[in-house]
Amino acid sequence: MNLMRKLTAALAVSVALCTAAYAQDILLRSSDTHPDGYPTVEAVKYMGELLKERSAGRIAVEVYHSAQLGEEKDTIEQTRAGVIDLNRVSMGPFNGLVPETRVVSLPYIFRSVEHMHKVMDGDIGADILSGFEAHGLVGLAYYDGGARSFYNREKPINSVEDLKGMKFRVMQSDIFVDMVAALGANAVPLPYGEVYSSIETGVIDGAENNFPSYESAKHSEVAKHYSLDEHLIVPEVLVMAKSSWDKLSADDQALVKQAARDSVAKQRELWAAREEASRKMVEDAGSQITTPDKQPFIDAMGPVYEKHVTDDKLKSLVERIRAVQ
Ligand code: GTR
């Protein structure tokens, strides 16, 4: 009887342990440079809600917004090291690491946001996403980042000539440095968090970004001239640490991938609304928007393509992207 009781107790403990192991929460920590409420931050939160619901509470996502975990270049390294599980970043800062991301960082590679969607939602997008795997990351989904244009504290920009000799901050990638040089201006690669004070103190004349970043990072307070030249349409990407991914069961991996995919439509919806709202906000606060003829800007990009589109893989990606109607 005594033995029976002991056996039953032992069984109860192991059942409890198994259940505990099964019910154990998986917490995925996610990084974003943008403030709370920004479309990318909200989209990853939404993905977290979907995951929680679909895993019956086992998997949760915690979003650390406002660069709480660091600037993008650093968080990319921390994600590769598995310290951060998820990271929502621009494709730009990946240029030195993941060669496939270079093609979407070429100026005027996309004719429009619709063209970018078609490309990224199809085979080419899938090929680029799989390029992250060799670098300790799993590419989960693309988000919208709209079009990026130049803004500055000095004067309205109506032509390429107006940019001559000016100093602009760019994301940390050699392609963007050469892009600015091709326009006759000077590029200063800096982390996002240093842009406001660098413009304010006159270390640089301006930067380049979409309306929601220009507005939410308050660059619009210190650089009132925004010129809609739309030289870059760089998608945002959501990546996961390969080591965090490998810890998940195949079923949970599928849940994560699907929730990420399902957050894309939500992000696009939030993005469209925020782009319009941000533009209105900065205009109301006194920003002057000019709309220069884009063709001379496009024509000036020849040297950037000549220098950076050299290997066959990139050449074929450029051709494939251009062929998408
Ligand atoms: C934003 C982008 C960020 C960051 C930033 C920058 O548009 O969403 O991920 O790359 O630009 O310019 O550093």
Set out the fold topology:
Blueprint: H1 2-23, E1 26-31, H2 39-54, E2 59-64, H3 72-80, E3 86-90, H4 113-121, H5 123-130, E4 137-143, E5 148-152, E6 167-170, H6 174-182, E7 186-189, H7 195-200, E8 206-209, H8 211-216, H9 219-222, E9 225-232, E10 236-241, H10 242-247, H11 250-284, E11 288-290, H12 295-299, H13 302-308, H14 312-323
Parallel strand pairs: 1-2, 1-3, 6-7, 9-11
Antiparallel strand pairs: 3-10, 4-10, 5-8, 5-9
Keywords: Signal
GO molecular function: carbohydrate binding
Protein name: TRAP transporter substrate-binding protein
Tally of structural domains: 2
* CATH fold label of the largest domain: D-Maltodextrin-Binding Protein, domain 2
Strand residue content: 15-25%
What spatial order of strands do you see in the largest sheet?
2-1-3-10-4
- Measured distance between first and last alpha carbons: 78 Å
Q: How many β strands by DSSP?
A: 11
Largest sheet geometry: 5 strands, mixed
CATH class of the largest domain equals: Alpha Beta
Q: State the helix count.
A: 14
- The helix content is 40-55%
CATH architecture of the largest domain: 3-Layer(aba) Sandwich
Instruction: Please state the structural category.
Output: alpha/beta
Description:
The strands form 3 sheets. Strands 2-1-3-10-4 form a 5-stranded mixed beta sheet. The protein has a 4-stranded mixed beta sheet with strand order 8-5-9-11. It is 47% helix and 18% strand. It starts with a helix and ends with a helix. The protein is an alpha/beta fold and 325 residues long. The chain contains 14 helices and 11 strands. It is globular. The chain has 2 domains: 2-98 and 110-144 and 235-277, D-Maltodextrin-Binding Protein, domain 2 (3-Layer(aba) Sandwich); 147-233 and 279-323, Bacterial extracellular solute-binding protein, family 7 (D-Maltodextrin-Binding Protein, domain 2, 3-Layer(aba) Sandwich), CATH 3.40.190.170. The site of beta-D-galactopyranuronic acid has 12 residues, from strand 3. InterPro entries: DctP_fam, TRAP_DctP, TRAP_DctP_sf. This is TRAP transporter substrate-binding protein. One of its GO terms (biological process) is transmembrane transport. Residues 1-23 form the signal peptide.
